[in-house]
Specification:
The complex is a heterodimer of chains A (80) and B (568). Chain A has 80 residues and is mainly α. Chain A has 4 helices and no strands.
């Protein structure tokens, strides 16, 4: 598995735990606001969990315009 | 507080404020739990004047336009003060717009100067539209050491020694150009004068005063009318302090209330709901006995504050809850979008009044809850100096809200026909439907205009997002606000719908649905279309082939119900 794919997989697993949904409900390219029924603040909450996991710091603006896990993984990958 | 009647411009009032309270804390900025900046009014003067002098040397003169695209931070306010000091006109742009949209508004506003955060500047320079800009000088904040700034200057180094010349402005001169909608071919640049802002400030502080020692937590974007007034002008002319957070993560926002003992905050409904959700979850986790006691105390507080808030008493009755907000919170402001009355009541019952209000970029604030008594079901009463009337009321007293006040904008930039449609005989027609109740409170009942306001307080106009669907394999399409097509006489639950006319003999396919969904995802989440519906008729068009939206909306109303909308 490529490092970016591992990052994506980790994010999907963490999101499933964070939002208490079955992992199989989440896909890399779907709009997570719609799938999870969350607002942008709830999405920001997830960032904190991701920061702890990847041991990085993500400014809020990294989430701006992001609504699918693949793009989020790309943004995180550049900071690893 | 300064006597604002004595001043002819924001620059003059702010200049006096800096001299009046030299030792009071003026600005605090924190990134998460790390405090980055703490300035007194005297410190702010020391930082802002060398910037103003550098702007003077760069020939920023009276009436020159300077745009700011930044998240909430101290450099936003320092830069704005320097621009006002030099008699400039401020163009505060939304940092959440796309780079292409920001460039379009920079061109439309004819801004010569731009002050921008590095990550936003990087996106702007990478946009294909970058070549169109006419900026004379760009200042970039927080740029990494070896970053390519594409000809821009570092904000932190852009300063000169020597006293800058203060440029006086008159009350009727333009202070700011603020965009109430994004782009889409017809940007609405509201031209607000120094008088507009000085009068707005007087009206607001008449009901909700600031004083030295007050700490305002600035969360809403400062380019937004609410934060510009409540998180900048209002506190400054009263010697109060503005606290900026570089993150909106709920956990750090909660910490900031406690760490900085916040007095006031403005929130959009989405953040209020988030706070409510968090508190309710905490209450539910309490052991049964403590939970019972808490609800008894909430009930007691509710009955004792029925006529008016008693903040000191509530802080004693519900000490733990108030300590969670720092123990000094007096009120939270909200407005610009629909808030569930139950959310407002929830906080009021805890002894934390939420002053719900109503305003527009064109004129803010128009109404506000005066808490005498608290009402969760209205947007409050007209502020001092604001005249409101209901145009052509129906049998229920509901009609279009119009306003006349010194707080209302002068005109739309370079758009006399839109100005003439909007300001009629000195009255600004808001496009919102409302009625007054017997106690003089305004209640809102949806919109007459084709737009939505999101829970995050964003105005979304269908015309601004239609280009995303350009090239869709259909004969024609048009976007409407659902509540405009089918007025409900309610507010909230707003959505945009995509009206489609298919090519002859074509069926609506799964592939088309997928194409619509893919394009929809290119839009920021708050701008997305919520559903679609298919028209059986060609769209009515003008001689120049523009869609006659009003006629089309009428046809949809006659032929299709809201139930025809298929959710995306």
């Amino acid at each position: 598995m490529k490092p970016s794919e591992q990052t994506l997989e980790d994010i999907l697993n963490l999101a499933a735990v964070h939002f208490k949904v079955p992992r199989e409900k989440l896909t890399p390219d779907e709009d997570f606001f719609k799938t999870l029924g969350i607002d942008s603040l709830q999405a920001l909450d997830l960032l904190t969990r991701l920061e702890h996991h990847f041991r990085i710091e993500l400014p809020d603006y990294e989430l701006q315009g992001v609504s699918d896990f693949r793009t989020l993984a790309d943004r995180i990958q550049t900071r690893l | 507080m300064l006597n604002l009647d004595q001043y002819s411009s924001l620059g003059a009032a702010l200049r006096d404020a800096l001299d009046r309270w030299p030792n009071e804390i003026c600005l605090i900025e924190a990134d998460r739990d790390r405090e980055k900046t703490r300035l007194t009014y005297s410190d702010l003067k020391d930082v802002a004047l060398p910037l103003a002098r550098a702007l003077e040397d760069a020939e920023l003169n009276s009436g020159d336009r300077a745009a700011i695209i930044m998240t909430n931070q101290s450099k936003w306010l320092i830069s704005a003060y320097a621009v006002f000091y030099r008699g400039g006109v401020l163009v505060p742009l939304d940092y959440k717009l796309t780079a292409a949209e920001q460039l379009e508004l920079l061109v439309h506003s004819k801004a010569k100067f731009l002050i921008v955060e590095y990550h936003l500047w990087r996106a702007i320079t990478q946009s294909p539209e970058f070549k169109n800009h006419k900026l004379k000088k760009v200042l970039v904040t927080e740029a990494p050491l070896r970053a390519d700034l594409a000809g821009a200057y570092r904000w932190e180094e852009f300063r000169r020694k020597g006293d800058p010349g203060f440029v006086p402005r008159d009350r009727e001169d333009t202070a700011c150009i603020v965009y109430s909608s994004g782009t889409g071919g017809r940007p609405k640049g509201c031209v607000l004068t120094h008088e507009n802002y000085l009068e707005q400030c007087k009206a607001l502080t008449a009901w909700y005063p600031f004083w030295p020692g007050v700490r305002y937590l600035s969360i809403l974007p400062t380019n937004h009318a609410i934060d510009f007034m409540v998180g900048f002008i209002g506190p400054f002319v009263c010697g109060a302090c503005v606290v900026h957070l570089r993150t909106l993560r709920p956990e750090f926002v909660r910490d900031a209330f406690v760490r900085y003992k916040i007095t006031y905050v403005s929130l959009v409904p989405m953040i209020l709901k988030n706070l409510e959700r968090g508190l309710r979850a905490k209450f539910d986790e309490l052991p049964a006995g403590r939970r019972f006691l808490l609800h008894r105390m909430i009930g007691l507080n509710k009955s004792l504050t029925r006529k008016q808030p008693k903040v000191a008493m509530s802080r004693k009755l519900l000490a733990k809850v108030h300590q969670g907000f720092g123990g000094e919170l007096r009120a939270m402001f909200t407005g610009g979008a629909f808030v569930e009355p139950s959310t407002l009541q929830f906080f009021y019952d805890l002894g934390i009044p939420v002053a719900n209000g109503y305003g527009l970029t064109e004129g803010f604030p128009l109404t506000l809850n005066d808490l005498k008594p608290f009402r969760p079901d209205t947007v409050g009463k007209p502020l001092p100096g604001v005249e409101l009337r209901i145009l052509s009321p129906d049998a229920d007293g509901i009609g279009e809200v119009s306003v006349r006040s010194k707080t209302v904008m002068s005109h739309y930039l370079d758009d006399p026909s839109l100005t003439a449609q909007t300001i009629v005989d000195g009255w600004l027609v808001t496009g919102d439907l409302g009625r007054f109740d017997g106690d003089g409170h305004l209640q809102l009942f949806g919109r007459k205009k084709n737009m939505i306001v999101t829970e995050g307080g964003k105005n979304i106009y269908p015309e601004d997002i239609e280009n995303v669907f350009e090239g869709l394999p259909v004969k024609e399409y048009c976007i409407f606000a659902a509540n405009y097509l089918w007025p409900t006489k309610t507010v909230g639950r707003e959505m945009l719908v995509l009206l489609l006319r298919l090519e002859q003999n074509r069926e609506f396919t799964d592939a088309l649905k997928e194409e619509i969904a893919t394009r929809n995802r290119r839009l920021p989440d708050f701008k997305r279309v919520g559903g679609y519906l298919v028209s059986s008729k060609d769209f009515p068009r003008t001689a120049s082939m523009k869609i006659k939206r009003t006629v089309l909306a009428e046809e949809v109303r006659e032929n299709l119900g809201r139930a025809a909308v298929v959710e995306l």
